[in-house]
Design goal:
Length: 218
């Protein structure tokens, strides 16, 4: 199964990609997570993406595509993958098409998570992440453990630097300008499936799985 998730920051892409990866036994490929890990590790890649991410701007396409190309070649992507946060621009989408054609592994579907803007803003404002293992929480709907610690690894959870209000707004603008046009791009390919993202996590996960299974191999 080869799926990508589209939607603004805070739509629930990461949450749903993790669910889909577990239920369909496919790899979860999240460019934002990969970039954050590179920053935390202090690698060359981390040094190149750090400031851009902090500002809420996009990492350059060539760098992002190179990272994804390498990641999709890894063994765990053999059974399939769900892309989370990639592509984010038209050139990235075109590069992905080229890459998947080359691999003879076309995309099954682009699933768009539809969530009203007011909900997205609440989700971003309450998002907390574990700096050690990357687990995601929400102060209201999915709070961390006692004392604000990660239920997976015990680290104290924190707000992402780019989830501060000012940067949030910037990222939503970038989404509208650079990423929203991908909805039309995948619709024109006949690959776009819209799923309502404004419900409980389990309900959305069921709808995403049905959409993915319904498109498989078509
Ligand atoms: P969110 O989950 O809020 O949508 P991500 O974790 O996917 O955010 O991404 C965080 C940041 O990482 C982005 O704001 C951007 O700076 C960078 N990034 C992630 N994916 C891409 C991409 N495909 N192209 C360019 N930059 C990216
Ligand atoms: P994205 O990857 O699209 O930026 P996330 O998966 O990180 O979005 O979700 C953003 C925030 O919203 C997180 O705090 C997450 O716990 C919360 N969240 C995700 N899905 C739901 C949902 N269906 N209902 C309520 N809160 C949700
Ligand atoms: Zn953790």
């Amino acid at each position: 199964m080869r799926i990508l998730l589209l939607g603004p920051p805070g739509a629930g892409k990461g949450t749903q990609a993790a669910r889909l990866a577990a239920s369909a036994r496919i790899a979860h490929v999240a460019t934002g997570d990969m970039f954050r890990q590179a920053v935390a590790a202090g690698s060359d890649l981390g040094a190149r993406v750090r400031d851009v991410m902090e500002r809420g701007a996009l990492v350059p396409d060539d760098l992002t595509v190179a990272v994804v190309r390498q990641r999709l070649g890894a063994g765990d992507c053999g059974p399939g993958f769900v892309l989370d946060g990639f592509p984010r621009t038209l050139p990235q989408a075109e590069a992905l098409d080229g890459l998947l054609t080359e691999m003879e592994r076309p995309l099954d579907a682009a699933i768009a998570l539809e969530v009203p803007e007011a909900v997205v803003l609440r989700r971003l404002a309450g998002r907390r992440v574990c700096p050690r293992c990357g687990a995601t929480y929400h102060v209201d709907t999915d709070p961390p453990g006692e004392g604000g610690v990660c239920r997976c690894c015990g680290e104290v959870v924190a707000q992402r630097g780019d989830d501060q209000e000012e940067t949030q707004r910037r990222r939503l603008e970038v989404y509208q300008r650079d990423t929203a046009p991908l909805l039309g791009y995948y619709a024109a390919q006949g690959r776009l499936v819209a799923v309502g993202g404004d419900g409980p996590v389990d309900v959305v996960a069921g709808a995403v799985l049905r959409a993915a299974l319904g498109r498989q191999g078509r």
